[in-house]
Structure formats: C-alpha cells, structure tokens
Amino acid sequence: MKIDRAAIIHDDKIYTGDGKSRHGEIGVKMIKDGACKRPYPGGSAQGFVTEDGEFVDRETALMMAIRAGQVKAGETCHARMLFSEDLY
Fold first, then answer.
1. Cα separations (Å) of 54 from 15, 34, 45?
2. Going edge to edge, which strands form the sheet with 55-57?
3. Burial (Cβ within 10 Å: 0-12, 13-18, ≥19) of residue 66
4. In sequence order, what are the residues at sequence separation of 6 or more whose Cβ sits closer than 8 angstroms to the Cβ of residue 41?
5. Model-level pTM?
6. Sign of torsion, CA 28 22 39 16?
C-alpha cells in the first residue's frame, strides 16, 4: 500500500490538501476554514493518508513508503519519520 498525501487529524476528522500540499499548508487551510485556531495541530496529529484513505502517523508512513518504493531507506529528511518533503 502506498502513501497518498500529507494529512492532519483533528477532532476525529482527517484534513488533507491536494496531492502536493505540505502539513503547514493543510494547517493554514484548517485555520482559515475555522476547523481550529492557531497553532494548528502538530506532533502526532500530523501524518499521512494511504491510497485507501487510512490515516497513519509519520513513523508508520515511513515504513510503508520504503516498502512501496516511494522513498529509499536512509535517504529521507529524518531517519525515523516521513515528511512531505520526502515525497514531493
């Protein structure tokens, strides 16, 4: 299974942007849409959605992206977590 896009989960709802949006862009849109106030959710609320629409945390996303061939182990921005910069 592949990672589809960056996402933020807040109040049991998953927020995403287009397929190239970074977490910061998603957070700013959440604020503009009234979904949350500043600062937008960080930490474990930030992750990714799979091609099946499942939210996964950054650590799980990294393992999935490596297995799917989307990134190479040891060549990502962070050793243990996936960041949108790693995908696009």
1. 12, 23, 13
2. 13-16, 3-10, 46-50, 55-57
3. middle
4. 8, 9, 10, 27, 30
5. 0.94
6. positive
CB 66 within 8 A of CB 75: no
Query: The domain containing residue 65 runs over which residues?
Result: 3-87
| Per-residue pLDDT tens over the stretch 24-83 | 999 999 999 999 999 999 999 999 999 999 999 999 999 999 999 999 999 999 999 999
Which pair of structure tokens corresponds to residue 5? 């896009």
How many domains does the chain divide into? Answer: 1
The Cα 77–Cα 58 span in angstroms is: 12
Task: Output the pLDDT for position 8.
Answer: 98
